[in-house]
TrEMBL record:
This protein's record includes keyword Chloroplast: no
GO-annotated cellular components: plasma membrane; side of membrane
GO molecular function terms noted in the UniProt entry: hydrolase activity, acting on carbon-nitrogen (but not peptide) bonds
Membrane association type: Lipid-anchor; GPI-anchor
Keyword Glycoprotein: yes
Organism listed in the record: Tetrapyrgos nigripes
Keywords for this protein: Cell membrane, Cell wall biogenesis/degradation, Glycoprotein, GPI-anchor, Lipoprotein, Membrane
Main location class: membrane
Lineage: Eukaryota, Fungi, Dikarya, Basidiomycota, Agaricomycotina
Protein name stated in the entry: NodB homology domain-containing protein
NodB homology domain ranges (all copies): 76-309
Amino acid sequence: MPSATKYSEYLPERPLVGYGMDQPDPHWPGGAKIAVSFVINWEEGGERNILEGDSGSETFIIEHLTRPSRIGGRDDMTESEFEYGGRAGLPRLMRLFKKYNFKSTIYTVAAALERAPYLGPMLVAQGHEIASHGDRWINSMAMSPEEEEEHMHQAIDRLQKYTGDPNVPRGWMIGRRSNASPRLYCRAAKERGLEFLYSSDSYGDDLPYWLESPLASEGEPDEGMLVIPYSLDCNDFRFVVPGSGWSSGEDFYNHLVDTFDVLYEEGLEGRAKMMSVGLHNRCVGRPGRLAAVEKFMQYISTKEGVWVARRDEIARHWREKFPYTVERCQGRML
Ligand SMILES: [Zn+2]
């Protein structure tokens, strides 16, 4: 095992085989045929802005797709799109989730929560999971590992302060991560005495899977790192990417339903899966897009054996049914 420091890049061998043809039955609670994880990305206020010391304005996941960054200046056209997400989008999404009594995992950018602190305790009280989506919504590759580590601790501080829950976060998804990110958040969680349930920095499967802990190569005991994979295809951000995006709510809805149907069928055959649905306040929180999410919620509400679960619940289930072993890390389940 090569020795590493906490600042080293985390580059495990690529897990290209996984479960192969022996896909395990995840034994979802209640014999469910599918686990559906709704994820709300809460990023508004954590994006690039010269007020935060960045070089220019944000350009990622906005309506005006080709708008360049305004270097050295504020761009209130883009800024106000982000404002919409926090002001109108998130409250609208919350009302929708309440209507269906579905709980989500909220990928929470700590700076976003700090700017709308009234939402923290409310989201926790409504049963949503507060997971970490970084301290700010910026590209971690532009940071040094030392700086990134500082950001992770600050993310923990802010999430705890503004939710009032000293045990958050239990899951991490940085997204635009550096090659050191998973090692750094494993380490930060450990140093802070937090339960580290999962990483969602992967799109690599339709089931949770184990990797060796990034801390093992630092000489720590290998407790494994559970991956709860996320999805960029069942994701509303494709409304606002050039080229291959959704042009209407129908597109998004149809893709969600097709995905659900295929996975549900596999569940009926004894190879149940999980489905991730990625949502953004400023994107699908727009009324013309929200309709697709509501129609999808209605659709899955008509089916038997659907477990709408938070990612921490899926992680706890997996840890109980399939605790970490080196064999499982290599995709073998027995
Ligand atoms: Zn995100």
